[in-house]
Amino acid sequence: MILTSNYGLKKPEGADLINVEDFNTNADMLDEKLAAVEAEMADVKKSVSDGKKLVADAITAQGTATAAGAAFETIAANVTAAGTARYNAGVTAAKKGNASTGHVLSGRTFTSAKGINLTGTMANRGAWTAATSGSGNVGIPAGYHNGSGYVSGAGAYNAGVAAADARANANSTNYKTGYNNGYNAGVAAADARANADSANYKAGYDAGYSKGLDDGYWNGYHAGYNDGKYA
Questions:
Q1: φ, ψ of residue 100 in degrees (nearest 5)
Q2: pLDDT of residue 126
Q3: Which of 4, 98, 168, 221 holds its CA 20 to 30 A away from the CA of 137?
Q4: How many angstroms separate the CA atoms of 104 and 119, rounded?
Q5: What is the pTM of this model?
Q6: Which parts of the chain sit beneath pLDDT 50?
Q7: Residue 125: how many other CB atoms lie within 10 Å
Q8: Residue 151: what are its φ and ψ, rounded to 5°?
Q9: Burial class (CB in 10 A: 0-12, 13-18, 19+), 59
């Protein structure tokens, strides 16, 4: 004969003779245990029912009507509603604030007209950084930034330098040709001006030379004459 580990019910083995008394004993034991379980369940149900009524009555007393047989989800929601109502009734609108969860940093709690002891959901980006890669914009994600982040312009700068270098290399022949043409045109214009005015330059030179020679001769003559005469 083998006995069950929990209630000691009798389990005949293959060689045991079947005894009706063993079945009766097992039935009596099961009946007793089931009756005890039913009694305990009745106590639990009554305790839960009484507890729900006490909580529901307390919530109703705070201004949010709640039935004694309401589901636990409803009771939980009404607890929050009652707390919010009490808060709103006791705090002026100017002091409540109007922040919602998206306005407050993730993990931080707050109380406002939106509710009591709410938890923020705003992402904390901290020292967020990014870099440009060309002429396109860099999107800045929503959330809290601590002021140390930045968008580097190195990528756009380097792209611009590379583009300028490529353009210069691609057009180097044109730049050289343009420089040479401009230089040659300038030289030709200068030569033409000099050739056109050469007669004037020579006439001016001759006139100046003659005037200087004449003035020097006569001044020297008179000075020598006077020096000899009155010495």
A1: -115, 175
A2: 93
A3: 168
A4: 8
A5: 0.35
A6: none
A7: 15
A8: -115, 115
A9: buried
